[in-house]
Amino acid sequence: MKQKTTQPPPAVRMVAAGLLAWFLPGAGHLYVGERARGITLLVVIALTFWAGVAAGGVKNTVNPQDRSLWFLGQICAGVHPLIAVVWSRHLTIPEGADPAGWISYGQTEEVGVVYTAIAGMLNVLVIFDVLGRVDRPELSQTRTGPARTPRRASA
Predict the structure, then answer these.
(1) DSSP per position, 21-32
(2) Cα–Cα distance measured from residue 74 to residue 135, given in angstroms and rounded to the nearest whole number
(3) What letters, b where the CB count within 10 A reaches 16 and e where it falls short, cover 109-124?
């Protein structure tokens, strides 16, 4: 006997997909059944964000107090900037250490800030994309589908 799987109403699916897409970029696509796209987006946005943090240093790349406008872009990347803020708050420069080894200055710092904000802006596009894909009927069926018959050549 085949059991029916009940799906939540479309409005609930849309809200869930949007929140998942914001919290963890790519998770919304995984939720709606687009596994390859979801994994690709998850990896690309995470790599873009953390490459920016690696270039600019965690202490001042994601800094809500000093870079509040940039942080608005960064926070769109979901959980990544939240992790970076917590990490930077708990990271202390050892006594007698050169701060330049722990904090980036100049152009590399700016590149890091831009990378992290770009990751957030990319995720805004990902959120809009998943909201458009939530209730498309062709996504609820399998991707393979029935075999297509070849076209006949005209005489």
Answers:
(1) HHHSTTHHHHHT
(2) 29
(3) bebbbbbbbbbbebbe
Cα dihedral 48/30/87/89 (nearest 10)? 100
Assigned token pair, 46: 């995470």
Residue type, 11: A
Answer whether 100's CB lies under 8 Å from 26's CB: no
Residue 74 parent element (H or E): helix 68-74
The residue type at 2 = K
Tell me the pLDDT tens digit for each residue of 126-137: 999 999 999 876
Mean local confidence (pLDDT), 48-59: 90
